[in-house]
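FORM 7B - TANDEM STRUCTURE REPORT

SECTION 1: FIRST PROTEIN
SEQUENCE AND C-ALPHA COORDINATES:
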Amino acid sequence: MPHSRPSSFKIFVLGNGSLLDEGISDMLIPHSQLNVTRITYTDDRTLYDLVNFEHPYAVFISEFDTLDLERVVSLIFSVPASCVRGVIVVHDETSELDVYYKPSTDAPVTTYRRKSIVVNTKEEFIDLALRVSSYA
Protein backbone atom coordinates (compact mmCIF):
# COMPACT_ATOMS: atom_id res chain seq x y z
CA MET A 1 0.00 0.00 0.00
CA PRO A 2 1.54 3.35 -1.00
CA HIS A 3 2.14 5.95 1.68
CA SER A 4 -0.12 8.97 1.39
CA ARG A 5 1.38 12.42 1.71
CA PRO A 6 0.33 14.16 4.95
CA SER A 7 -1.68 17.38 4.72
CA SER A 8 0.97 19.14 6.79
CA PHE A 9 4.53 18.47 7.87
CA LYS A 10 5.67 18.99 11.45
CA ILE A 11 8.90 20.97 11.52
CA PHE A 12 11.11 21.66 14.54
CA VAL A 13 13.31 24.75 14.68
CA LEU A 14 16.02 23.88 17.20
CA GLY A 15 18.21 26.61 18.55
CA ASN A 16 19.21 28.67 21.53
CA GLY A 17 16.32 31.13 21.54
CA SER A 18 18.07 33.61 19.26
CA LEU A 19 16.75 36.09 16.74
CA LEU A 20 17.93 33.68 14.02
CA ASP A 21 15.62 30.97 15.43
CA GLU A 22 12.73 33.43 15.39
CA GLY A 23 13.50 34.47 11.81
CA ILE A 24 13.60 30.85 10.62
CA SER A 25 10.26 30.18 12.29
CA ASP A 26 8.68 33.37 11.00
CA MET A 27 9.56 32.44 7.42
CA LEU A 28 8.10 28.93 7.74
CA ILE A 29 4.99 29.45 9.91
CA PRO A 30 2.77 31.19 7.31
CA HIS A 31 2.98 28.23 4.91
CA SER A 32 -0.16 26.08 5.29
CA GLN A 33 1.67 22.76 4.80
CA LEU A 34 4.17 23.41 7.59
CA ASN A 35 3.40 22.97 11.28
CA VAL A 36 6.34 24.74 12.93
CA THR A 37 7.48 24.44 16.55
CA ARG A 38 10.43 26.33 18.01
CA ILE A 39 12.50 24.35 20.50
CA THR A 40 15.32 25.68 22.64
CA TYR A 41 18.08 23.09 22.96
CA THR A 42 18.54 22.12 26.62
CA ASP A 43 20.09 18.65 26.50
CA ASP A 44 20.30 15.52 24.35
CA ARG A 45 17.74 13.51 26.37
CA THR A 46 15.06 16.18 26.06
CA LEU A 47 15.69 16.50 22.33
CA TYR A 48 15.57 12.72 21.88
CA ASP A 49 12.25 12.53 23.74
CA LEU A 50 10.72 15.40 21.76
CA VAL A 51 11.66 13.84 18.42
CA ASN A 52 10.46 10.43 19.62
CA PHE A 53 7.05 11.68 20.81
CA GLU A 54 6.32 14.52 18.36
CA HIS A 55 7.48 12.90 15.08
CA PRO A 56 8.72 15.92 13.11
CA TYR A 57 9.48 15.42 9.42
CA ALA A 58 12.39 17.87 9.40
CA VAL A 59 14.50 19.66 11.97
CA PHE A 60 16.05 23.05 11.30
CA ILE A 61 19.04 23.81 13.50
CA SER A 62 20.31 27.34 13.80
CA GLU A 63 24.03 26.98 14.19
CA PHE A 64 25.32 28.23 17.51
CA ASP A 65 28.60 27.76 19.37
CA THR A 66 27.73 25.22 22.06
CA LEU A 67 26.11 22.62 19.83
CA ASP A 68 28.02 19.66 18.40
CA LEU A 69 26.13 19.39 15.12
CA GLU A 70 27.34 15.91 14.15
CA ARG A 71 26.30 14.52 17.55
CA VAL A 72 22.88 16.19 17.39
CA VAL A 73 22.23 14.97 13.83
CA SER A 74 23.18 11.42 14.90
CA LEU A 75 20.91 11.70 17.93
CA ILE A 76 17.93 12.88 15.88
CA PHE A 77 18.35 10.09 13.32
CA SER A 78 18.79 7.47 16.06
CA VAL A 79 15.24 7.88 17.38
CA PRO A 80 13.42 4.65 16.44
CA ALA A 81 9.95 6.16 16.11
CA SER A 82 11.20 9.14 14.17
CA CYS A 83 9.67 10.42 10.95
CA VAL A 84 12.58 12.82 10.50
CA ARG A 85 13.71 12.74 6.90
CA GLY A 86 16.30 15.45 7.11
CA VAL A 87 18.09 17.93 9.31
CA ILE A 88 18.79 21.38 7.90
CA VAL A 89 21.56 23.43 9.47
CA VAL A 90 21.21 27.18 9.01
CA HIS A 91 24.50 29.05 9.25
CA ASP A 92 24.27 32.49 10.78
CA GLU A 93 26.76 34.19 8.48
CA THR A 94 25.89 32.84 5.01
CA SER A 95 22.95 31.84 2.85
CA GLU A 96 24.37 28.32 2.65
CA LEU A 97 22.48 25.56 4.41
CA ASP A 98 23.69 22.03 5.10
CA VAL A 99 21.08 19.33 4.63
CA TYR A 100 21.64 15.94 6.25
CA TYR A 101 19.42 13.21 4.85
CA LYS A 102 18.25 10.27 6.92
CA PRO A 103 19.76 6.99 5.74
CA SER A 104 17.37 4.71 3.90
CA THR A 105 18.41 1.69 5.96
CA ASP A 106 17.84 0.93 9.63
CA ALA A 107 21.49 -0.04 10.12
CA PRO A 108 23.44 2.24 12.46
CA VAL A 109 25.22 4.92 10.49
CA THR A 110 27.90 7.24 11.79
CA THR A 111 28.09 9.55 8.79
CA TYR A 112 25.18 10.95 6.85
CA ARG A 113 24.73 12.18 3.34
CA ARG A 114 25.16 15.94 3.51
CA LYS A 115 24.44 18.43 0.79
CA SER A 116 25.22 22.15 0.94
CA ILE A 117 22.57 24.35 -0.63
CA VAL A 118 22.45 28.12 -1.13
CA VAL A 119 19.04 29.75 -0.77
CA ASN A 120 18.48 33.34 -1.74
CA THR A 121 14.78 33.88 -1.17
CA LYS A 122 12.08 33.02 1.33
CA GLU A 123 10.35 30.93 -1.34
CA GLU A 124 13.51 28.83 -1.86
CA PHE A 125 13.76 28.37 1.91
CA ILE A 126 10.16 27.15 2.17
CA ASP A 127 10.58 24.92 -0.89
CA LEU A 128 13.61 23.31 0.76
CA ALA A 129 11.60 22.65 3.93
CA LEU A 130 8.87 20.95 1.88
CA ARG A 131 11.33 18.90 -0.19
CA VAL A 132 13.23 17.64 2.84
CA SER A 133 10.01 16.88 4.74
CA SER A 134 8.64 14.79 1.88
CA TYR A 135 11.98 13.09 1.06
CA ALA A 136 11.65 9.32 1.14
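SECTION 2: SECOND PROTEIN
SEQUENCE AND C-ALPHA COORDINATES:
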Amino acid sequence: QQPGWPEKPTHLSPIARAEWDRLGGLLEGEQRLGLSDGPHMTGAAVAYATALEYERKAKQRGLPHDEWRRFKTGERVQWDTYRKFLNDLCLSQGTRARAKTSSGQQGSKLQGFLDRRANRPAPAKSAG
Protein backbone atom coordinates (compact mmCIF):
# COMPACT_ATOMS: atom_id res chain seq x y z
CA GLN A 1 0.00 0.00 0.00
CA GLN A 2 1.27 3.43 -0.93
CA PRO A 3 1.38 6.15 1.75
CA GLY A 4 -1.75 8.31 1.76
CA TRP A 5 -3.70 5.76 -0.30
CA PRO A 6 -6.81 3.98 0.95
CA GLU A 7 -6.46 0.30 1.82
CA LYS A 8 -6.88 -1.84 -1.34
CA PRO A 9 -9.25 -4.77 -0.74
CA THR A 10 -7.59 -8.14 -1.07
CA HIS A 11 -10.63 -9.84 -2.65
CA LEU A 12 -10.40 -7.93 -5.95
CA SER A 13 -9.73 -9.83 -9.17
CA PRO A 14 -6.52 -9.00 -11.06
CA ILE A 15 -8.46 -6.80 -13.52
CA ALA A 16 -10.22 -4.97 -10.69
CA ARG A 17 -6.91 -4.50 -8.83
CA ALA A 18 -5.32 -2.96 -11.92
CA GLU A 19 -8.29 -0.59 -12.37
CA TRP A 20 -8.18 0.32 -8.66
CA ASP A 21 -4.49 1.25 -9.06
CA ARG A 22 -5.20 3.21 -12.25
CA LEU A 23 -7.99 5.24 -10.62
CA GLY A 24 -5.82 5.90 -7.56
CA GLY A 25 -3.03 7.15 -9.83
CA LEU A 26 -5.41 9.51 -11.62
CA LEU A 27 -6.71 10.94 -8.35
CA GLU A 28 -3.22 11.22 -6.88
CA GLY A 29 -1.99 13.00 -10.01
CA GLU A 30 -4.72 15.61 -9.54
CA GLN A 31 -3.93 15.88 -5.81
CA ARG A 32 -7.42 14.67 -4.93
CA LEU A 33 -6.79 11.18 -3.54
CA GLY A 34 -8.00 10.72 0.01
CA LEU A 35 -8.50 7.80 2.35
CA SER A 36 -12.27 8.16 1.94
CA ASP A 37 -12.00 7.42 -1.81
CA GLY A 38 -11.38 3.72 -1.16
CA PRO A 39 -15.01 2.51 -1.28
CA HIS A 40 -15.73 4.39 -4.51
CA MET A 41 -12.52 3.16 -6.11
CA THR A 42 -13.43 -0.38 -5.07
CA GLY A 43 -16.97 -0.05 -6.44
CA ALA A 44 -15.68 1.33 -9.73
CA ALA A 45 -13.03 -1.38 -10.04
CA VAL A 46 -15.52 -4.18 -9.35
CA ALA A 47 -18.07 -2.73 -11.80
CA TYR A 48 -15.33 -2.39 -14.44
CA ALA A 49 -14.12 -5.97 -14.04
CA THR A 50 -17.70 -7.30 -13.98
CA ALA A 51 -18.64 -5.37 -17.13
CA LEU A 52 -15.64 -6.83 -18.93
CA GLU A 53 -16.63 -10.32 -17.75
CA TYR A 54 -20.20 -9.81 -19.03
CA GLU A 55 -18.77 -8.60 -22.33
CA ARG A 56 -16.53 -11.67 -22.60
CA LYS A 57 -19.38 -14.07 -21.81
CA ALA A 58 -21.78 -12.29 -24.17
CA LYS A 59 -19.35 -12.79 -27.04
CA GLN A 60 -19.39 -16.57 -26.59
CA ARG A 61 -20.97 -18.39 -29.49
CA GLY A 62 -24.24 -20.26 -29.31
CA LEU A 63 -26.09 -18.17 -26.72
CA PRO A 64 -29.88 -18.15 -27.15
CA HIS A 65 -31.37 -14.71 -27.84
CA ASP A 66 -32.91 -14.26 -24.38
CA GLU A 67 -29.64 -15.19 -22.67
CA TRP A 68 -27.68 -12.89 -24.99
CA ARG A 69 -30.04 -10.01 -24.09
CA ARG A 70 -29.71 -10.79 -20.36
CA PHE A 71 -25.92 -10.68 -20.61
CA LYS A 72 -25.99 -7.41 -22.57
CA THR A 73 -28.36 -5.87 -19.98
CA GLY A 74 -26.05 -6.99 -17.18
CA GLU A 75 -23.07 -5.51 -19.00
CA ARG A 76 -24.87 -2.19 -19.54
CA VAL A 77 -25.84 -2.03 -15.85
CA GLN A 78 -22.22 -2.57 -14.84
CA TRP A 79 -20.96 0.14 -17.21
CA ASP A 80 -23.60 2.54 -15.81
CA THR A 81 -22.45 1.67 -12.29
CA TYR A 82 -18.82 2.25 -13.29
CA ARG A 83 -19.69 5.69 -14.74
CA LYS A 84 -21.56 6.59 -11.54
CA PHE A 85 -18.51 5.77 -9.41
CA LEU A 86 -16.24 7.78 -11.74
CA ASN A 87 -18.64 10.70 -11.44
CA ASP A 88 -18.56 10.39 -7.64
CA LEU A 89 -14.75 10.42 -7.76
CA CYS A 90 -14.89 13.55 -9.98
CA LEU A 91 -13.22 11.66 -12.82
CA SER A 92 -15.92 12.43 -15.38
CA GLN A 93 -15.61 15.45 -17.65
CA GLY A 94 -18.48 17.35 -16.02
CA THR A 95 -17.44 16.90 -12.41
CA ARG A 96 -13.71 17.19 -13.05
CA ALA A 97 -13.94 20.86 -14.05
CA ARG A 98 -15.62 21.69 -10.73
CA ALA A 99 -13.38 19.56 -8.51
CA LYS A 100 -11.05 21.08 -5.96
CA THR A 101 -7.57 19.72 -5.40
CA SER A 102 -6.30 18.93 -1.92
CA SER A 103 -4.47 22.27 -1.98
CA GLY A 104 -7.87 23.97 -2.30
CA GLN A 105 -7.40 25.13 -5.89
CA GLN A 106 -10.52 25.22 -8.01
CA GLY A 107 -10.27 23.23 -11.23
CA SER A 108 -12.81 25.36 -13.09
CA LYS A 109 -11.96 26.98 -16.43
CA LEU A 110 -14.27 29.86 -15.54
CA GLN A 111 -12.42 30.47 -12.28
CA GLY A 112 -9.09 30.46 -14.13
CA PHE A 113 -10.46 33.00 -16.61
CA LEU A 114 -11.74 35.25 -13.81
CA ASP A 115 -8.43 35.02 -11.95
CA ARG A 116 -6.47 35.97 -15.08
CA ARG A 117 -8.86 38.84 -15.81
CA ALA A 118 -8.55 40.20 -12.26
CA ASN A 119 -4.75 40.10 -12.43
CA ARG A 120 -4.23 41.74 -15.82
CA PRO A 121 -3.10 45.36 -15.92
CA ALA A 122 -5.71 48.02 -16.65
CA PRO A 123 -5.65 49.39 -20.23
CA ALA A 124 -3.76 52.66 -20.68
CA LYS A 125 -6.00 55.70 -21.06
CA SER A 126 -5.52 57.70 -24.21
CA ALA A 127 -4.89 61.40 -23.98
CA GLY A 128 -7.50 63.27 -25.86
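SECTION 3: OBSERVATIONS ON SECOND PROTEIN
DSSP finds five helices and no strands in the chain.
The radius of gyration is 22 Å.

SECTION 4: SIGNATURE
Preparer initials: ____
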